[in-house]
Amino acid sequence: MNRFTAAGHDERVTSRVGAWLGVAFGLCFLTGLLSHAIQHPPPWFGWPSGPVWLYQATQGVHVVSGVAAVPLLLAKLWSVYPKLFDRPLIRSPLHALERGSILVLSGAAFFELVTGLFNVAQNYLWGFYFPTAHYAVAWIAIGSILVHVAVKLPVIRRAWSGREVDADRRRFLRTTWLGAGVAVVATAGATVPLLRDVSVLAWRSRGGPQGIPVNRTARAAAIAVPADWRLEVVTAAGTRAFSLADLTALPQATEVLPIACVEGWSASASWTGVRVADLLRAAGSEPGAPVRVTSLEREGLYRESTLPGRHTEDPATLLALRLNGEVLSPDHGFPCRIIAPSRPGVLQTKWVTRLTIEEIQ
């Protein structure tokens, strides 16, 4: 006698939930690859500087699709857990491959979703470096999904071409879609401004000094701005130093650009400062070459970043001195910071002390 008679324990339900889970994981995987490539670009990779909201959109999709995958994964596992009680445990080499792919897929999926949610909360309970581990396990997860789909293809075809889903199973599916929808709406406000008033679980989309959140404060970075601070711009023509008064005396530009964090939250603001292209020209160089940006921060993985050539020549890329009409607060990078369109927040280097044209290295 079948002990598992609940509506969810049916291959037609499993296949439909699995299809949407595959979409969620696929979006999460592809946008995650993009984010990783932007932060660690291989020689062949290029990322455009426009539209200004492009990274904001792709990283928002990455985090929101990961959130949607949580209730979908739980529903799918609920639908198939009776298989754990099938006997014999292994019936054939193909059956062993199927079970192995499910084990690897479940482990990798839980690792990605759980560590991803902790990363969103900036709560790291582990000793490994999150981006490297998350990136590596993402390939394991997507590989196991492809193996699993290939092995289960006959069952999937039968489930989609067979009997209609009855009322009880439709209710289960509707509850699953509702759960995923609620999870998305409750969190998507971190990225989608129109949803911020209804996204009760949205994180870090509001508040912070000067109305914009920060991930790393000046105190946490142990920033001490020397009284004789100068910005050094190192070009093939030599090194030119600019005081804050010198920078303020240069032509100023204002751009509305988002800070888009890898954790998925984003917030737009009005930034005022010197166009990086104009600054390079003032230092005797032409924009269009990559520029290494160095921070006053002594330690940290992101104390240096590289601004690609397409960004150094984009007029929207600023060495920002003011935020929303006010002088930058220490937490937002006083005396100056980089703000460029379509870039991750971790690469919008704060407390800048040196710009170096990389071609002269």
Question: Would you report the number of β strands?
Answer: 10
- In terms of DSSP E residues, the strand content is 5-15%
User: In total, how many domains does the architecture comprise?
Assistant: 2
Low-pLDDT sequence parts = none
Indicate the radius of gyration in whole angstroms: 25 Å
H/E element order? HHHHHHEEHEEHEEHEEEE
Q: Biggest sheet: strands side by side, in what order?
A: 2-1-10-5-6
Which word captures the global form? elongated
User: Mean of the pLDDT scores?
Assistant: 90
Class by helix and strand content? alpha+beta
The largest sheet, given as strand count, sense and whether it forms a barrel, is: 5 strands, mixed
Q: Helical percent range?
A: 40-55%
Terminal-residue CA separation? 74 Å
- Count helical runs: 9
Structure description:
The chain is α+β, with helices and mostly antiparallel strands and 361 residues long. The chain folds into 2 domains: 11-195, no CATH class; 210-360, Sulfite Oxidase, Chain A, domain 2. Helix content is 42%, strand content 15%. The chain has 9 helices and 10 strands. It has helices at residues 11-39, 54-80, 93-120, 130-151, 153-161, 167-187, 244-249, 276-282, 309-312, and strands at residues 231-235, 238-242, 253-260, 266-275, 291-295, 304-307, 318-323, 326-327, 337-339, 352-357. A 5-stranded mixed β-sheet has the order 2-1-10-5-6. Strands 3, 4, 7, 8 and 9 form a 5-stranded antiparallel β-sheet that branches. A hairpin with a 2-residue loop joins β1 and β2 (238-242). α1 (11-39) runs antiparallel to α4 (130-151). The longest helix has 29 residues, at 11-39. It is elongated and about 75 Å long. The chain starts with 10 loop residues before the first helix and ends with a strand. The mean pLDDT is 90. One of its GO terms (molecular function) is oxidoreductase activity. Pfam families: Oxidored_molyb.
